[in-house]
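From the pipeline queue, job 12 of 40. The input is one protein chain; the requested action is below.

Action: predict structure.
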Amino acid sequence: MEAIWFILIGLAAGWLAGRLITGGGSSVIGYIIVGVFGSVIGGVLFDVLGVSTGSGVLGKLTVATVGAITFLLLLHVIKKP
């Protein structure tokens, strides 16, 4: 059941990041990939900064969305000619 929540939160975070940052994916699989990578990046980022968002779904979604936005911005920097 935990894996299903992880995927659903990743999907929502990827979709939100894709709406805020262009090039964030255009399919369900794309949103899930961006969101899952964002969850990992956000978790590390929040841990390094010592920021706590709580343990609820909203906190996890916040961390994943911030991480997904960071991931997309890094991709833009890397892909920039």
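Job complete. The mean pLDDT is 86.
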